[in-house]
Design a protein that fits this description.
mainly alpha, elongated, 367 residues, 71% helix, two-stranded antiparallel sheet
């Protein structure tokens, strides 16, 4: 493997750094702020409790997949690698070496009976020891028979993971936050499963026929098993990341539905109405209490006197005169005030005589 010189890395950083750094900072700010919609920015929220439980489940299953892929005691035994034997070793010598390393088992006897020719050993590297030792109807004369027997074992982890995805993306467990990822996650899981089966079924097991040393043998079954669990782990971690980003409104967030927006506006109006009613109660209390009413009148008399004194000062008078003369158009202010009052209060005829002036309706303005 050729090492990349430090000078090349530094040149690439100098060239691409000014381009990539602002984009990285913008992406970070977007994650912190939340996405922008036509209805305004969506606030970043904590992870909902159902999504948090689903994230823990996905992370736990991903750790199990990683343990199955990495830890040696979870892998199927490879007797050629264990005994450091080449492909052309005699069967008796191979299993004698194996017996010197550990006690023989029933699977060893079944596997020894299957090693009748070179073809069976090549199929061993393609399908592994379990399929070769336990298949009751398979033979090296018909290699496809091993594939038919291995299909349930190949599909089992993918079906389990597909059921897990269906569970964590159901609306019952995660609501709309998880259900939006149900279709793409299911398609990705099916694609991984079909790709795995395709790679196993189309593998040319004859590639190991000319391997003279142990290092030249392609241990396809063990390599494919590791890739299988790595792919499932990557899929689950990607789904967990998407669930986290979308449920917290950091990325891929859906704007509130019309019903939710109407409910939010109604709730805000109810709060405003409550504050107005509270202000009315306070004003009514002040008007009915002699002491409070006297203090209120004294405050406003003091306010009028104080503002009158301020407005009579020379600097204030000159400032108001300059503003009216140069920067403020009085006609525009009066027109804006009139428009505001008309929009705020209905016309007198509509407010007092809501029935209009028609026959049989309410009273007219002239009555």
């Amino acid at each position: 493997m050729t090492a990349i010189p430090w000078g090349t890395i530094r040149s690439l950083l100098i060239f691409f750094g000014p381009i990539l750094l602002p984009k990285a900072l913008g992406a970070y700010r977007t994650l912190r702020r939340g996405p922008q919609t036509i209805h305004g920015p969506l606030k970043v929220r904590p992870v909902p409790a159902p999504v948090r439980r689903v994230l823990l489940l996905l992370l736990s299953v991903s750790l199990v997949y990683l343990a199955l892929a990495i830890l040696p005691f979870h892998r199927p035994e490879n007797i050629f690698h264990l005994t450091q034997s080449r492909l052309q070793i005699p069967v008796d010598v191979l299993f004698t070496r194996l017996a010197s390393l550990r006690p023989p088992t029933v699977a060893d006897s079944a596997l020894r009976n299957k090693f009748v020719n070179l073809e069976s050993r090549l199929l061993y590297f393609q399908f592994g020891p379990d399929v070769l030792a336990s298949c009751p109807f398979c033979s090296s004369d018909n290699p496809k028979s091993y594939l038919y027997y291995a299909l349930p074992r190949l599909a089992a982890p993918h079906l389990f993971n597909l059921g897990l995805i269906a569970l964590v993306t159901s609306s019952f467990f995660t609501g709309r936050d998880g259900y939006k990822w149900r279709y793409p996650a299911t398609i990705a899981s099916l694609c991984i499963g079909f790709a795995d089966i395709y790679m196993v079924s189309t593998y040319n097991h004859q590639t190991n026929a000319r391997a003279l040393r142990l290092t030249e043998i392609d241990f396809f079954h063990w390599r494919q098993r590791t890739l299988r669990f790595f792919a499932l782990t990557t899929l689950n971690l990607l789904l967990a990341s998407l669930l986290y980003l979308s449920s917290t409104n950091r990325l891929f967030a859906n704007p509130p539905s019309p019903a939710e927006r109407v409910e939010f506006v109604l709730r805000q109006l109810q709060q405003v109405k409550g504050k107005v009613n509270a202000a009315g109660v306070i004003q009514n209390t002040i008007s009915r209490d002699d002491d409070l009413r006297g203090r209120n009148d004294a405050y406003w008399r003091h306010e009028v006197r104080l503002m009158g004194e301020v407005m009579e000062e020379r600097d204030v008078v000159e400032g108001v005169r300059d503003a009216l003369r140069e920067r403020i158009v009085v006609e525009n202010v009066e027109r804006d005030a009139e428009t505001y009052v008309r929009n705020l209060l209905p016309p007198f005829s509509v407010a007092v005589f809501p029935g209009g002036g028609g026959n049989g309706g309410g009273r007219s303005k002239d009555d």
